[in-house]
User: Fold this.
Amino acid sequence: MAIWIYLFLMVAVALVVAALWSILDRRRPDYARLWSWTALLLRLALGGQMLFYGFAKLIPSQMGPPPLAALLEPFGDFSPASMLWLQVGSSPVYEMLLGSVEVLGGLLLFWTRTATLGAIISLIAVVQVFILNMTFDIPVKILSFHLVVLSLILLAPHVRNLLELFVFGQAAKPLTPTALFRRAGFNRWAAGLQVVLGVWVAIGAAQISWTGYQEYGAGAPKPELYGIWSVQDFRVDGTLLPPLTTDEKRWQRIVFDTGGATTLQMMDGALVPVPADIADETLQMQQPLASLVIERPDDDTLVLSGELDATPTSIVAHRMDHDALTLRSRGFNWVQEAPYFR
Assistant:
């Protein structure tokens, strides 16, 4: 809410300043050189954002693969934003293609000769992003709208040429903007610096995305207990608890994911993220309070024993083959006799 109010005040101030400026400086014939500098700043701002978000998809770190706990969640429980995130993250190739378009548009914006093409590509990309943000309730509506506006402003001087070329089939006329400087040497240096800046921003964006991919994306290291474990035997103080959906204490599954994420699935299906730590072959939890010794009779069996909520507890769980779930196992098929919807 604060950002919306802040932007409203900026618009109000801008309108007042623009009106005063227009009155006080009404005799100036044009702002050709000021426009050239303004267009340059807008290009750099738009290009930087395109490279940042583009590399976050090209190196798929913005929308990672669905977390293991999400594979257990009913479809109807997902918010529209989560559904979009998981849908894109489920297809890394699709995400990388989206990112490549954004990266291409961003890179082209840093070179004067290709800036118009970069603005066209960027407009196509950010319009799609803005529509998705609006229709799936993604909380980046303001930024994506600004990127659409920046693209339109940069393309505004070229509208006539674009219409003549693509609509009326006529040759586009040369459009030569006013140079940034009066001296040709300075303009060559400025053009070269823009390219160098674009390369530097691209390298920085790629490095940030690669770090994210390695830390919390698909490239992040997986913990030793990584997987979904189905609880087969749950005993409290020596008493076996049957798998009743009305039992509020028994666990149905326990999920260990990358980044230390641990989730308990209760018997009623509820998924409860819990702060957990594994050290010295012991699983420590704060809520619920637990200290459980870990034993591994084999790779697919997990035995936890110790105290859970100050009560002696033993748990036996078996690893579930989450890769056998349809979302992960369906894969790609050239020949389909019928649509495969499940």
Summary: The CA atoms of residues 280 and 293 lie 9 Å apart. Residues 184-215 form the longest helix (32 residues).
